[in-house]
TrEMBL record:
It comes from the Bacteria. The lineage of its organism: Bacteria, Pseudomonadati, Bacteroidota, Flavobacteriia, Flavobacteriales. It comes from Flavobacterium cheniae. One of its GO terms (biological process) is DNA replication. Pfam families: SSB (PF00436). PROSITE patterns: SSB. One of its GO terms (cellular component) is nucleoid. InterPro entries: NA-bd_OB-fold, Primosome_PriB/ssb, ssDNA-bd. Homotetramer. Transmembrane segments: none annotated. This is Single-stranded DNA-binding protein. Keywords: DNA-binding. GO terms for molecular function: single-stranded DNA binding. CDD domains: SSB_OBF.
Length: 107
C-alpha cells in the first residue's frame, strides 16, 4: 500500500509562504472538507474537518500565485507526522499532508 492522501476542500486562510535558504520555497495552508449526512429522524448533520497542508518547490509556487482564502482546491500528497518542542519546552505533535500536486477548482 502507498501513503497517499487526496482532499478536495476550501482554503481556510491566506497561504503562508516562506522563502528558505538555497532558494527553496515552502507554502502552508489549511483546507476545510465538509461531510453532510442525515440522521434517521431526517435531521441534517454537517461536519467540517480541517487539514494542515504543506507544499514545497513548484507546488508552493502555484499556491503562492493562485491560491487565496476561500478558494476550492484539490490536493494529492502523503500523510506525515512530526513533533517539536515549543518555546516552553513542551513536546507538540503535528499531522499534516505534504502536497505534491494541486488542482485549482473554484473561481
Amino acid at each position: 500500500m502507498k501513503n497517499s492522501v487526496q482532499l478536495i476542500g476550501h482554503v481556510g486562510q491566506e497561504p503562508e509562504i516562506k522563502n528558505l535558504e538555497g532558494g527553496k520555497k515552502l507554502a502552508n495552508i489549511s483546507i476545510a472538507t465538509n461531510e453532510v449526512y442525515y440522521k434517521d429522524n431526517g435531521d441534517k448533520v454537517e461536519q467540517t474537518q480541517w487539514h494542515r497542508v504543506t507544499a514545497w518547490g513548484k507546488t508552493a509556487d502555484i499556491i503562492e500565485r493562485f491560491v487565496t482564502k476561500g478558494k476550492e482546491i484539490a490536493i494529492e500528497g502523503k500523510l506525515t507526522h512530526r513533533s517539536y518542542d515549543d518555546k516552553d519546552g513542551n513536546k507538540r505533535f503535528v499531522t499534516e499532508v505534504v502536497a505534491n500536486e494541486i488542482l485549482l477548482i473554484g473561481k
